[in-house]
Automatic annotation (TrEMBL):
One of its GO terms (cellular component) is cytosol. Gene3D superfamilies: 3.40.1280.10, tRNA(m1g37)methyltransferase, domain 2 (1.10.1270.20). S-adenosyl-L-methionine binds at residue 111. This is tRNA (guanine-N(1)-)-methyltransferase. Residues 208-241 are annotated as: Disordered. Its main location: cytoplasm.
Length: 241
């Protein structure tokens, strides 16, 4: 089954962009996924093909018009999740990426200017408002590329080793353990002895411990969630310290 991606954007020339090379590009050539763009401006009805207008109530910038966005969204059809890229959205998670990658595809609506007329979300409650992080981009296109890349690499056959997409940051609630490779010594620094021991049990224990320690120090938000989940009993009640 081909994973079908549809991008609703004012800049269709940005796609597939970097997704046309490397692993994603080879998968695109094989037909593992497809990339279709929808030009939002094509749904404007005035002679100037206007897609935005000034904010109601005043303020800087311009807002994408609901009467243009609506027909553009309708053109996508049903059966796939629709994501709207906006800094007002919930940061997308690796778990949600896995769910999307396991399905038939995704449609992504790319914001620009001051964002979308809020009424499109009232009218189309199935749209998921998502963001990459607590940052503001010039438009949703670069965020859409990142989300597509995260999905495509999980498609069957895209990555060489099946485990490549499993032992990674966020897959088990932790960031990944540090990695090393040859040469054994570089600038006076050596690969940790345990990784050269050949003892797979000790290596696994070291990696787990480093994942936990690094997550605790670098991502306390993830650590709080991970340690909380770990302390849940089978009945769902949190164990007392």
């Amino acid at each position: 089954m081909t994973f079908a991606a549809t991008i609703l954007t004012l800049y269709p020339e940005m796609f597939p962009g970097p997704l046309g090379v490397s692993l994603a590009g080879r998968a695109l050539d094989r037909g593992d996924w497809s990339c279709e763009t929808v030009q939002i401006r094509d749904f404007a009805t005035d002679r100037h093909r206007t897609v935005d207008d000034t904010p109601a109530g005043g303020g800087a910038g311009m807002v994408l018009k609901a009467d243009v966005l609506g027909p553009a969204i309708e053109s996508v059809g049903e059966g796939r999740p629709i994501l709207a890229m906006t800094p007002r959205g919930k940061p997308i998670s690796q778990a949600r990426i896995r769910e999307i990658a396991a399905g038939p595809g995704v449609a992504i609506l790319c914001g620009r200017f001051e964002g979308f007329d809020e009424r499109i979300f009232d009218h189309y409650p199935q749209i998921e408002e998502v963001s990459l992080a607590d940052i503001v981009l010039s438009g949703g296109e670069t965020a859409a590329l990142a989300i597509l890349d995260a999905c495509i690499r999980l498609l069957p056959g895209v990555m060489g080793a099946p485990d490549s997409g499993v032992e990674e940051s966020y897959e088990n609630g932790l960031i990944e353990y540090p990695q090393y490779t040859r040469p054994q010594e570089w600038e006076g620094r050596t690969i940790p002895e345990v990784l050269r021991s050949g003892d797979h049990a000790k290596i696994a224990a070291w990696r787990k411990a480093r994942s936990e320690e690094d997550t605790r120090l670098r991502r306390p938000d993830l650590w709080d969630r991970y340690s909380g989940d770990r302390d849940q009993s089978a009945s769902g009640a949190r164990r007392k310290d």
